[in-house]
């Protein structure tokens, strides 16, 4: 699906729920997952697995948001999922960061209208899912255009990025708004805490502390329309936590009716 502004083409993957053909009048929630190369097949199979012995999660349309065609995934995600040009010092000197606002516009103006026109989507139930940089993109959307999605799954968000820029976005939103109408599921792995010398844990940034800071900030606002759940998942690190976080988030945000 081309972006008319950047002229890049992005692949968008679609998985329809099992009952889609048999129930032509039914509309479905839509879950938009970034980093589709791994997230799309994992979520698709988890959703099937959860309902094997009876419905645990509501059926939904799954949309996988992949990278620019012909691009390395790292190139796409560090450009499209980050909010400022100030990438980490470990990044390649030629790396491009900070075009998340443009990608957010692409989601708003191209992807969502296409999905809503092409499939029987319930426009009131659009769920964003991102992990790591994908969740960083989600925090930007949540605090700049929260109505773009009704719910947000923010897994191990890279809140450390550019001196915790995302937390500044949260504070800026709070100054201008009295409410935040969204359901948010935050998760992070136990071993994403900072504990130097213990190789099970992060050695440079404390993502558990950052997640708790975001949770505390949101709770302190007392937004009447915000539903928030935050979890530190035991015995998981930044790579292993994603499938478990996806599953817990689906059970929380899409419980079977």
Q: In words, what does this structure look like?
A:
By secondary structure, the protein is of the alpha/beta class. It is 38% helix and 20% strand. The chain has seven helices and seven strands; from the N terminus they run ββαβααβαβαβαβα. It has helices at 36-50, 73-80, 100-118, 133-144, 161-176, 207-221, 241-253, and strands at 10-15, 28-33, 61-68, 121-131, 151-155, 182-189, 226-233. Strands 1-3-2-4-5-6-7 form a seven-stranded mixed beta sheet, sandwiched between helices. α1 links the parallel β2 (28-33) and β3 (61-68). The mean pLDDT is 96.
CA distance, first residue to last residue: 33 Å
Estimate percent helicity: 25-40%
SSE string, helices as H and strands as E: EEHEHHEHEHEHEH
Number of helices: 7
Strand order in the largest sheet: 1-3-2-4-5-6-7
Mean pLDDT score: 96
Radius of gyration: 18 Å
Q: What global shape is seen?
A: globular
Strand content: 15-25%
**Strand count:** 7
Which regions have little confidence, pLDDT < 50, spanning 5+ residues?
none
Assembly level: single chain
Largest sheet: 7 strands, mixed
- Provide the structure class: alpha/beta
Brief synopsis:
With 257 residues, the protein is an alpha/beta fold. The chain has helices spanning 36-50, 73-80, 100-118, 133-144, 161-176, 207-221, 241-253, and strands spanning 10-15, 28-33, 61-68, 121-131, 151-155, 182-189, 226-233. The protein is globular, with a radius of gyration of 18 Å.
